[in-house]
Amino acid sequence: MKKNLKYNVVWLLIAALAYAFIYVLYITGVITPFTEYTLITIGINIMLALGLNLIIGFSGQFSLGHAGFMAIGAYSAAIMLVKYPTMGGFFSGILLGIVLSGLVALLVGIPTLRLKGDYLAIATLGISEIIRIVIINMKDITNGPAGIFGIPPMVSWPMVFGFVVIVTLIIVNFIHSGPGRATMAIREDEIAAESMGVNTTKYKVAAFIIGAVTASVAGAIYSSYVQTIAPKDFGFMKSIDILIIVVFGGIGSVTGTFISAIVLGILNMFLQDAGALRMIIYALALIIIMIFKPGGLLGTWEFSVKKLFNKKEDNSNASIKR
Asked: Using one digit for the tens of pLDDT, what is the confidence trace for 202-214?
């Protein structure tokens, strides 16, 4: 427990240094409104991809329904903000989205997570489409296919940065906890884990719920930032966009998810002036990198503060022996 607390403190110090660096860039004018949009988009994508990586990379469940949970969070926050255009309304919307997405993930996860591979992917894709169709047909609440306009802007880059830190700490601490190790054991060999007494359904559903909740939080931030949402924003291609970040960075690597979201966000920013060629160049870049690095940019490699501490301890023990 004390070691985990020590590592969390170190991570918070690293986050504080990163925040200070971004703040210096902001006050010196290096970060313009356009680059601020890219910065916030990268933060939202990091939250989305971290949740999906927990499901795919650490629990070994192939999900294509992430956009549906993002939609729940986006609409929950948008509806609350339109009725109560205050910071309290915004956080109430986030909490509402967390509760709804968690309940949906629980109700859906218990039966569907018994499936594997392609069957699970199709099932989760169907769930995402059901969520989107329900939103379209709840016209009195969601304004149907037209979506919700004029959502009060409550989001700033410091807020997004704070949420990224919180989501990262939650997921990393879960991965290194007892339930997290059980979840990774299921990924490696579900039959062996079950034979050792691991409740596989319980831990798979837990990872699925955490991933859904983080997607909901990212969706809430997204809706307040862009100020306009519609059901078409949360279709199949949105789930694929998030999946690309996870695969590009390395399935099962939190560090890879960060680097992937940053690299793809910057690449997308520089390709804005390319017009119709933007998506072609973007796709070609992805294809070339995946050919030469099929395991993603980092594979399963992880930057770990724990390893740094252990290395220092090993060096000090070696010097004492000498």
From this structure: 899 999 999 999 9
Q: Where are the beta strands (DSSP E) in 155-247?
A: none
What DSSP line would sit under 226-274, residue for residue? HS-B-GGGGSHHHHHHHHHHHHHH-TT-HHHHHHHHHHHHHHHHHTGGG
Nearest to 112 by CA among 68, 167, 176: 68
**Secondary structure of residue 198 in the 3-state scheme:** coil
Dump pLDDT digits (tens) for 255-296: 889 999 998 898 888 877 776 677 777 778 778 877 877 777
Cα torsion angle, 289, 291, 293, 294, sign:
positive
Q: Which pTM does this prediction carry?
A: 0.89
Phi, psi for residue 304 in degrees, rounded to 5:
-130, 125
Q: What is the mean pLDDT of residues 126-146?
A: 92
The DSSP H or E segment spanning 78 is: helix 66-83
Helix 87-112, helix 66-83: angle, nearest 10:
150
Summarised one tens digit per residue, pLDDT across range 287-309 is 887 787 777 777 766 666 566 55
Distance between CA atoms of residues 74 and 67, nearest Å:
10
Long-range contacts of 32-35 (CB under 8 A, 24+ apart): 34/269, 35/269
User: What whole-number distance in Å separates Cα of residue 242 and Cα of residue 53?
Assistant: 9
Count of CB atoms situated within 10 Å of the CB of 246:
27
8 A C-beta contact, residue 203 and residue 210:
no
Contact in structure between 108 and 127 (CB atoms under 8 Å)? yes
Identity at 8, one-letter amino acid code: N
Beta-carbon count within 10 A of 41 CB: 19
- Of the CA atoms within 13 Å of residue 234, those in its CB half-sphere come to 36
Please enumerate in sequence order all residues whose Cβ is within 8 A of that of 279, keeping only pairs 6 or more positions apart, or say none.
none
